[in-house]
Fold this protein.
Amino acid sequence: MKSKYFLQFLGLMKKTIYLLSIPTILLLVWGFTQFSSWGKNRQTVVPKLNFNFSLKDTSLIKPKEVHPKKAILLSGLMRSHYAKKSIDKDISIASFDAYLKTLDGGKSYFLEPDIESFKPYREKFALMLEEGQVDVPFQIFNIYKQRFTERMNFVDKLLEKEPDFNADEYLETDREKLAWFKTEKDIEEEWRKRIKNEMLGLKLAGKKFDEIKSTLKKRYDRSRKTINQINSEDVFQYAMNSFTESFDPHTNYFSPVNAQNFNMNMKKSFEGIGARLRSQEDYTIINEVMPGGPAFKSKELKKDDKIIAIAQGDKGDFEDVVGWRIDDVITLIRGTKGTTVRLKITPANSPAGAPPKIVRLVRDKIKIEDESAIKKVINTKRDGKDYKIGVISIPSFYIDFNDYQRGNKDYKSTSGDVKKLIGELKSEGIDGLVIDLRNNGGGSLKEAIDLTGLFIKTGPVVQIKDASGDIDVQPDRNPDVTYEGELAVMVNTFSASASEIFAGAIQDYKRGVIIGEQTFGKGTVQSPMGLAEYMRSDDQNQGQINLTISKFYRVTGSSTQNKGVMPDVAFPAMFDRTEVGESSERSALPWDEIRASRFTPTDDITPKRVEKLKKTLDSELKSNKELKELMTEIEDVKKLRKRTKISLNLAKRKIETEEFEKKYKKKSQNDEEENTPNEVESKEKKDVYLETGAKLLAEMIGLKK
């Protein structure tokens, strides 16, 4: 190895957010020295490509000359993955299945004969990539592209005639667990129902057939254009990401363009709504709502919501974006600070066939470093006594690393902002404090530790175990305690990573009561690695991999991975954990335990006090009108989401839609591509869970007194 590349490699390691132990670095260096010899003097693990049919599409996408080398390199780097999985038959099957799901998760394009043709490569998919054989995923994609074109041609025929909306038939909306269609006739019948369903939705919105035809024609013409814009780098990313994510869901490969966009979004400011997006088949999906941005403040957008149309300003017409390339959707959403954009979305938790929802947002300049904790006071009454409960909501664990590294004592950070807010709340005479971490996806590990230090004297906060088995205990060494009063921490399913470290430490030290839902369960650490660091190339952007290298553990030795943090007092969960959370991912690393650290818990939270709070919550669930209504809504939505068959009969669909809108007292907003004159900016809804959390903390204060 030349010293130049060794120094570049070590330089990359210094850029990572988390400090790596020496054994971990040595393990990564070993992986680097090994990859260059892989693929040499090895027997080919699969025969030459031999699909049973020829491709008709002349615009075939082929791998670039550099792709085999990148595939070998990425396979080599996976040897440094925390899980130490071998690239074998199981990884091949997982990678192959993930690749098919990436292309056709709804089983709407491939036929069973296609899948049978691919089967010889299923158990060897990752093994081929390890040797630099990348032709198979490209061949599969080209067949997918051909099938896609065939479906679009059939859609053109369907749009010529209005279907019979009086026929009593149904569409199955969840095809993932069903078999692939055997024949062209079978899949055409599915597409007939699918297009009829889309027509029915527009018809219920008051559209005439000519308008319906025009809307869908534009939609599917855009889909054609989108698939024709997919290039060689895109296909390589689909394949390699399916491979890397078979090790764990957070190890991702980014193509050169996407790596550049990812890093730009992480480091720079831009003007928009503050949401990161991803593609899923024909839809653009909300992948993450960025704390502090318009989307976050609106409380109207959530992870996995589907964006189906976009309108500019308060009077602009909606433009259907189903089937659009994600870059084009982002262009429509981003814009000048202070301007308005309206999104028509299908909420992630809405049942099949539910009407879309319109969200009005005012664009703003988004800066990661501008995320800030905020405070408020909730006045509540328990047992005839008035209590003033302070609430500090923390959107993420942020820090201005540049100022911190320069030695600026006033650098912006979560712990610094919260310390100031606690001082202000104490001067207002609060009786107790709630730290609200709901929807907080994590951030700086340092800040999770420093925030914990505001509530405990000294001691270990988190343990980090690397791939070589070494354990690094990260402590709070500051004996100062900013707040010694009664404390509650509120969490939900989307509280992840650094949020789980803080909540877990507060729970383990028995310093405060944890209230809410079981948290997400992301207990792993990723390190970004640019491939250019390992390749002799003048082009410094060769893509990057975010590789899982470590795992978080609580001071008790329990991992936060997969299980997350279990609340002391559990609220009914809004979402089913089989659908969201780390445990819903097939390749999620397992929960496990290591040896506990030495720490001294307080006696603030006792089993008797927790049991009393549980009984108080049970009482609230039975007597609190607003809480009862929310519980009913949660259960109704869960039941409706299990319904995957929707009627294609106009009369029945009308009844279903009216019942849905009546149940949730929401005015229908499904007027496709029309202005809604009474659209107003979303008002802040009453936070029933937060108010209930404040009541429970008041109860805890009363018990101690």
About this structure: Residues 1-44, 666-684 have pLDDT under 50 and may be disordered. The longest helix spans residues 135-158.
